[in-house]
TrEMBL record, chains A, B, C, D, E, F, G:
Subunit structure: Heptamer of 7 subunits arranged in a ring. Interacts with the chaperonin GroEL.
Subcellular location: Cytoplasm
Function, in words: Together with the chaperonin GroEL, plays an essential role in assisting protein folding. The GroEL-GroES system forms a nano-cage that allows encapsulation of the non-native substrate proteins and provides a physical environment optimized to promote and accelerate protein folding. GroES binds to the apical surface of the GroEL ring, thereby capping the opening of the GroEL channel.
Family: Belongs to the GroES chaperonin family.
GO molecular function: ATP binding; metal ion binding; protein folding chaperone; protein-folding chaperone binding; unfolded protein binding
A matching Pfam family: Cpn10
Record PROSITE patterns: CHAPERONINS_CPN10 (PS00681)
GO cellular component: cytoplasm
PANTHER family attached to this UniProt entry: 10 KDA HEAT SHOCK PROTEIN, CO-CHAPERONIN GROES
Protein's name according to its UniProt entry: Co-chaperonin GroES
Keyword flag Cytoplasm: yes
Gene source species: Velamenicoccus archaeovorus
Keywords: Chaperone, Cytoplasm
Taxonomic classification: Bacteria, Pseudomonadati, Candidatus Omnitrophota, Candidatus Velamenicoccus
Main localization, broad class: cytoplasm
Length: 97, 97, 97, 97, 97, 97, 97
């Protein structure tokens, strides 16, 4: 995966819904608004605030996170890999190891 | 529960509606917009303000709080435990012990 | 009443509409948008502004105030007491003693 | 009139539409959006800005002002006196003596 | 005309549509959204910015200006004079003498 | 053309759609949302930012620019000349000579 | 291509959907909301923040980027070349070489 996300964007590898989720959360395909689980594969530099300071991302590569369903933009690479480009705002929590 | 909420998010364990509520408030399942009661199980670092300073959360783990109905995102863990990920803005008050 | 409101929230005890209102204002149940009267029973720390400073509340416990109808969230305690959790923004004026 | 308005609120005594208006403006009951005239009877401390400084009100007690029709909240006291609680933003101009 | 506008408000004397417009612009009553011409008769202190500084108005009494049609609030004085209270934001340009 | 635009406003002389456009762009009357070309004939002092500093305009008199279709306000002078008063935000790019 | 974009705008040369995309992403014409790939041909000075500081663009000429479909404004030059003027906010990621 050779993308460098911009600003406050984060690239996730969505976890397959039926696989045993790292966070131990139920990942029902159907249930509306239930958060999804994914692995962080790339992080941007962070959000530029009104006064120019940069808000470093709280998440880092390798973290497994919960994110709001329907957020972000899907990207499918030629080898069929699906990624999701979200804003850090869309990430709800980090799944502690 | 092994989630670390991000930013100004707080993870609550909603109190069952019929149990005797800690705050002594009536928790009618039905009544529209009546606030709900829940226990704080994890807090984020806090909200990053426009100038980069972080607004520490007022609530802490273990607090019982009133929160606006219909706010936040539900998460159900594999062992059937239900949690709610809200923003601190959605929490109305702390129930004093 | 054992709730500590968060941030810029204020807890009021709404004055019964027919009782003689402290501020001497007419409290018609019916009239649309007419302000209501209530007594302040608890105040939050105040609103956190963009630069992190806290805007101390202008009202204090014991004040009788006028507030915009339909604002805030109702809370009913087990002993049937009704309170209203509003934001200070919803309070129009203090009734001078 | 024993109310102390909060923040950037101002309490006005609306001028009766048919009386000779101080500012010499026509106060037609009917005409849509035409501004109204009223007398300032109480002023708040002023609007708290994003950085915590307080923007002192430009109007003071006794000023006669023009204000946007339909703004503010009406309050009727027991002795039948009608007042209007507006935000200073709703006041268009001061009528010079 | 004895009104002192508040904040960033400006009082204009709209130019009659058919009179030869100072700026030499066509003032068709009908044409939608075409700007109007008027003379500045009073200016407020200026807009208070987020940090409390006041943005002095660019226009001054006597200037002839172009302003966006349908902006502002009309005021008619007893002697039938029509004025318009606009915000400086609604003024597009000054007609150079 | 004797108008001095206010604040962040810019006055443009729209290029006739069929004339050979300076920037060599196709100026089809019909095509939806395609940008238009025009010449800068007057610039305002610039946009006043939240803290009072003024953001100098990037464009200057004589520049040929691309601007978003349907933006701004048309002004027709008595001698039939058509101008457009836009905000600098509506200008997409400068056509390099 | 002789345009200099203003502020936080970036000019892209969209990659043809069927060509082998640099980032190796699938560029299906049809799929809704799938991001598009393009090459940066010109960058603006950057976004002016509330306090006047300029947020330098993260992308530079020559970068291949992923951008949100349907964003920006199309420009077609006389020689039939199609460009897209977007805001840096619309760019999701840079395709690493």
């Amino acid at each position: 995966m050779n993308f460098q996300p911009l600003g406050d964007r984060i690239i996730l590898k969505p976890l397959e819904a039926d696989s045993k989720s790292k966070g131990g959360i139920v990942l029902p395909d159907t249930v509306k608004e239930k958060p999804q689980e994914g692995k962080v594969v790339a992080v941007g530099k962070g959000k530029v605030l009104d006064n120019g300071t940069v808000q470093k991302p709280e998440v880092k590569e390798g973290d497994v996170v919960l994110y709001a369903k329907y957020s972000g933009t899907e990207v499918t690479t030629k080898d069929g890999e699906e990624y999701l480009i979200v804003r850090e705002e869309d990430i709800l929590a980090i799944v502690k190891k």
